[in-house]
């Protein structure tokens, strides 16, 4: 391990507002979510971080299956001849593709791409499987790792190798494919907002910002504490581009041979990075109870020679085990205050403190991670109060995040206001826009921002906030991760 990494690990976290980047890195390390791997740009997902990712994954997965999708697995390596069939797709990913050129001590006759995404390999397989309209739709998802050779990396937000899900579907009609894209976009919004408590804006991407090879891309965008946007999930209408490139054809009910209409949609562990950044505070992580590995941690406050506290703590653990995800911190080598700090750093929603006085009074003291409030609760009421408190934490976290998003979203109807808001990185800037790529490139050159999503049509007679030409749409702009 490098000396630089060792130095990072022993630092205390800075104030979040003072240095968000360093705060984020230190929280990821000190909360034991990740560690740095010996390969540049790669991280090790530690058990606590993996437990959070599993809970997020399960929330998505059950919704995918409820909408008729099945999980499968496709190979990591993609022959170059397959990847280049869809020229626009390859051009979009070419700078990020990692290639295998040698195996078993021998030079390969054809380079193999380490998947940056799987449209190519899946397209080839779908072409084998689809013959008739009766074979459609195909609704498949896979949970895998992918690799994109990024120049600048940060845990979860941008790494060379990362975990994600990618859904790939094939349909007999354009309408059915379009409905699929919107259905999955809504699944992403639902998990982001209802489970992770991360408020998002959803809409269509501009031509310049859409996925390479797609006819249309839709996304959910979250706002981070530094005023930058985070793309948290995307859903793509691929039209018949990939079907024609990979020969996905079927005989329709009218006995005509037609190309299928395909979609793809994906969410990566980047959404976990957004959760960390959006909800955390100067003490560390603040986890929504729905995805907290431990929703409750019990910390006994021990007195030498007194066995009643530990016995009571064990009874508490037993009684709560079927109610919530609970952990008893019975380590004797660490003091109670040290444990308090550790579990605050790791974002556990509720901490139950029990000492000799609590045992005598037949109660526990509950500390809320989100508000730092402490509440004395009788033992007889505990199993009913804890779910109520977890619901309150889940609700409060979201309300805070929505308030931040709304107070950091500004409307701009003049060029001066539009440019100033983007340069000062206040957050989302909503404006009427002409939707021209040249205009978007000029905006980026002057402000380092681009459109994040297009939310709807512009009002009649509206003009572009940047260039002054007739506006077609209303869009949200921001700098981004």
Describe the 3D structure.
The protein is α+β, with helices and mostly antiparallel strands. It folds into three domains: 3-279, BirA Bifunctional Protein, domain 2 (2-Layer Sandwich); 290-392, Anticodon-binding domain (Rossmann fold, 3-Layer(aba) Sandwich); 410-478, C-terminal domain of ProRS (Translation Initiation Factor IF3), CATH 3.30.110. The chain contains 15 helices and 23 strands. It has helices spanning 3-10, 20-30, 47-66, 80-83, 87-93, 119-129, 174-195, 241-246, 270-279, 308-320, 336-345, 356-361, 382-407, 415-423, 437-447, and strands at 34-36, 43-45, 70-71, 77-79, 98-103, 106-114, 138-147, 161-171, 200-204, 216-223, 229-237, 249-251, 257-259, 261-268, 296-300, 326-328, 350-354, 363-368, 374-378, 409-411, 428-433, 450-457, 473-478. The strands form six sheets. A seven-stranded mixed β-sheet has the order 3-7-8-14-11-10-9, with helices on both faces. Strands 16-15-17-18-19 form a five-stranded mixed β-sheet, with helices on both faces. α3 (47-66) packs across α7. The longest helix has 26 residues, at 382-407. It is globular. 42% of the residues are buried.
Strand arrangement, largest sheet? 3-7-8-14-11-10-9
Q: Detail the poorly predicted runs.
A: 1-10
**Number of DSSP helices?**
15
Proper CATH architecture of the largest domain: 2-Layer Sandwich
Brief characterization of the structure:
The protein has helices at 3-10, 20-30, 47-66, 80-83, 87-93, 119-129, 174-195, 241-246, 270-279, 308-320, 336-345, 356-361, 382-407, 415-423, 437-447, and strands spanning 34-36, 43-45, 70-71, 77-79, 98-103, 106-114, 138-147, 161-171, 200-204, 216-223, 229-237, 249-251, 257-259, 261-268, 296-300, 326-328, 350-354, 363-368, 374-378, 409-411, 428-433, 450-457, 473-478.
């Amino acid at each position: 391990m490098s000396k630089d990494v060792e130095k990072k690990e022993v630092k205390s976290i800075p104030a979040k507002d003072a240095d968000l980047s360093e705060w984020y890195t230190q929280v990821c390390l000190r909360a034991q979510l990740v560690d740095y791997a010996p390969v540049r740009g790669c991280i090790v997902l530690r058990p606590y971080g993996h437990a959070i990712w599993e809970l997020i994954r399960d929330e998505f997965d059950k919704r995918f299956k409820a909408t008729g999708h099945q999980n499968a697995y496709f190979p990591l390596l993609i022959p170059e001849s397959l990847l280049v069939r869809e020229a626009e797709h390859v051009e979009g990913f070419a700078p990020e593709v990692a290639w295998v050129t040698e195996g078993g001590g021998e030079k390969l006759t054809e380079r193999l791409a380490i998947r940056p995404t799987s449209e190519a390999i899946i397209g080839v397989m779908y072409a084998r499987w689809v013959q008739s309209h009766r074979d459609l739709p195909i609704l498949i998802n896979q949970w895998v790792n992918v690799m994109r050779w990024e120049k600048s990396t940060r845990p979860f937000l941008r790494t060379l190798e990362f975990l994600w899900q990618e859904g790939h579907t094939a349909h007999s009609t354009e309408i059915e494919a379009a409905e699929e894209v919107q259905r999955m976009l809504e699944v992403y919004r639902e998990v982001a907002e209802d489970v992770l408590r991360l408020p998002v804006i959803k809409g269509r991407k501009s031509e310049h910002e859409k996925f390479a090879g797609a006819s249309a891309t839709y996304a959910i965008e979250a706002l981070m504490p530094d005023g930058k946007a985070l793309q948290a999930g995307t859903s793509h209408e691929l039209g018949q581009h990939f079907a024609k490139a990979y020969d996905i054809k079927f005989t329709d009910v009218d006995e005509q041979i037609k190309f299928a209409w395909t979609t793809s949609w994906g969410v990566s562990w980047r959404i976990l990075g957004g959760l960390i950044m959006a909800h955390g505070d100067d003490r560390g992580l603040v986890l929504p109870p729905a995805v907290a590995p431990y929703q409750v941690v019990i910390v006994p406050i021990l007195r030498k020679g007194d066995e009643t506290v530990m016995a009571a703590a064990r009874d508490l653990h037993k009684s709560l085990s079927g109610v919530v995800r609970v952990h008893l911190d019975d380590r004797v080598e660490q003091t109670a205050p040290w444990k308090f700090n550790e579990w605050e750093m790791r974002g556990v929603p509720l901490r139950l403190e029990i000492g000799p006085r609590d045992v005598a009074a037949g109660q526990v003291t509950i500390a809320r991670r989100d508000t730092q409030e402490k509440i004395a609760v009788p033992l007889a009421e505990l199993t009913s109060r804890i779910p109520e408190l977890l619901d309150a934490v889940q609700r409060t976290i979201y309300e805070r995040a929505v308030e931040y998003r709304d107070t950091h979203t500004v409307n701009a109807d003049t060029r001066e206001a539009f440019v100033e808001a983007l340069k000062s990185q206040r957050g989302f800037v909503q404006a009427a826009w002409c939707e021209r790529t040249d205009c978007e490139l000029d905006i980026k050159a002057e402000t380092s921002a681009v459109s994040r999503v297009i939310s709807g049509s512009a009002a009649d007679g509206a003009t572009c906030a940047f260039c002054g030409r007739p506006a077609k749409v209303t869009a949200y702009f921001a700098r981004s991760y």
